[in-house]
Design brief:
CATH architecture of the largest domain: Alpha-Beta Complex
Oligomer: single chain
Radius of gyration: 22 Å
Number of domains: 2
InterPro entries: RtcB (IPR001233), RtcB-like (IPR052915), RtcB-like_sf (IPR036025)
Binding site for Mn(2+) 1: 106, 185
Protein name: 3'-phosphate/5'-hydroxy nucleic acid ligase
Enzyme class: ligase
Strand content: 15-25%
Binding site for Mn(2+) 2: 209, 288
């Protein structure tokens, strides 16, 4: 009886509260847990798959995420590092639970890459004015609004806003749609590296990285609190059962914020295409802070990816490096490694130090020299996003050679980010 009580107390607080109210799904789970204990069966601890080199604190954080009856698999990619509750770069699978803290505060954060019909030679002499135009038209920074609210069909989907209990947030969300935010969020211009093509003839690509902005942060904060969780690094994950009222509402909120993030990145891409005077010829678009219902070891599970990119066989993903490094378009490769990684790959190069340490260690002149040597023009940005604070992307990708392959290599020549005056509270 004591053992059963201990098992129940290991459940998320929201589940315990629902059980006390007589929730049928959790009552059935209680009976199944009791039967398991009577039969003497205890599930073995889940051993995570680790790719690359990681510090002990990051690996401990991942093991804590897997220390739950419902956890079935976990992995961390080579760009991984310590995050809020779940490591950035980690994927964790639960049979019937979804992790609010695992998805994180920036629900639906992701990358969009757009190939244009414009050759690099047509823009190389006007990079500065183009970046100034992007910076003037698109809002960068925490709490920033668009000059005029963006109309979008998403705001007409009243059922989705009601299911997420998010109607009070619609007005602010409309004003922020298509704003980029701060931190490591950006709009970049790239030229594709093609071995048999002169650089001036290579196509220009647009790269965009941001998420669901204030809408996602407010929804995550709300459901973290309702789920009895806490904000922090060394905290247990906040898990909600998929069939509980709270779990269903959170899933609806996550899906709404994901749609919002996609719509915002689409809008920004359209603005940059207009500024360039170019047309789109291809695109790659993906989330990396989200939970998907997928098959794991033969049964459905929620795969919670925090800062890692879905990479099923043939699936394309856009992965940026730091502001001074090449980015790539990847394709997933079917292999035993890919399956062990829950069909996940990197979402970037990965930090090697925290923001505060980067601010202490580097000077703006060092950062600017790094960028000048690589022909990169910068608008905004600060030392916490210095390229020196990140791993090198090629070294990270070497660890994933058996599960993803590079299709396109993109070299940055223009970067626009929020400026040094912005403090970013959006955690992920």
């Amino acid at each position: 009886m004591i053992t059963l009580a201990v098992r129940i107390l290991s459940w998320p607080r929201a589940d315990v509260a629902s059980l006390a109210r007589g929730d049928a799904v959790l009552t059935a789970r209680l009976l199944a847990t009791a039967a398991e204990l009577v039969a003497g069966r205890r599930s073995a601890p889940v051993t995570p798959v680790v790719v690359g080199d990681h510090d002990d604190r990051t690996l401990t954080q991942l093991r804590v995420c897997l220390d739950h009856d419902d956890a079935v698999a976990g992995a961390i990619c080579a760009d991984g590092h310590l995050g809020y509750s779940q490591p950035v770069g980690a994927a964790v699978a639960y049979r019937e639970h979804i992790s609010v803290s695992g998805v994180g505060f920036d629900i639906g954060c992701g990358n969009l890459a757009v190939r244009t019909d414009m050759p690099f030679g047509a823009v190389c002499d006007r990079v500065g004015p183009l970046l100034d135009a992007i910076n003037a038209r698109i809002s960068f920074g925490v709490g920033r609004l668009n000059d005029a609210p963006v109309e979008h069909a998403l705001f007409d989907d009243s059922e989705a806003w009601a299911a997420a209990d998010a109607r009070p947030l619609m007005h602010a969300a409309r004003q922020q749609l298509g704003t980029v935010g701060a931190g490591n969020h950006y709009v970049d211009l790239f030229q594709e590296v093609l071995p048999d093509t002169a650089p001036e003839q290579s196509p220009v690509w647009i790269g965009i990285h941001f998420g669901s902005r204030g809408l996602g942060h407010r929804l995550a904060t709300k459901y973290l609190r309702l789920g009895g969780g806490r904000d922090g690094i060394d905290v247990r994950p906040t898990l909600l059962h998929q069939d509980s009222d709270l779990g269903r509402a959170y899933i609806a909120a996550m899906e709404l914020a994901g749609r919002y993030a996609y719509s915002g990145r689409d809008w920004v891409a359209a603005q940059v295409l207009d500024i360039l005077g170019a047309s789109e010829t291809d695109r790659v678009h993906n989330h990396h802070n989200f939970a998907w219902r997928e098959e794991v070891a033969g049964s459905p599970a929620w795969v919670v990816r925090k800062g890692c990119t879905p990479a099923f066989a043939g699936q394309h993903g856009f992965v940026g490096g730091s502001m001074g490094d090449d980015a790539v378009i990847l394709s997933g490769v079917e292999s035993a490694t890919s399956e062990a990684l829950l069909h996940s790959t990197v979402h970037g190069a990965g930090r090697v130090m925290g923001r505060r340490e980067a601010m202490r260690r580097f000077s703006r002149e060092e950062m600017q020299r790094w960028l000048r040597e690589r022909g990169v023009h910068l608008r905004g940005g600060d030392l916490d996003e210095s390229p020196m604070a990140y791993r090198r992307l090629d070294a990270v990708l070497e660890h994933h050679a058996g599960s993803a392959e590079v299709l396109h290599r993109l070299r940055p020549f223009g970067v626009v980010m929020a400026g040094a005056e912005v403090v970013d509270p959006y955690k992920d």
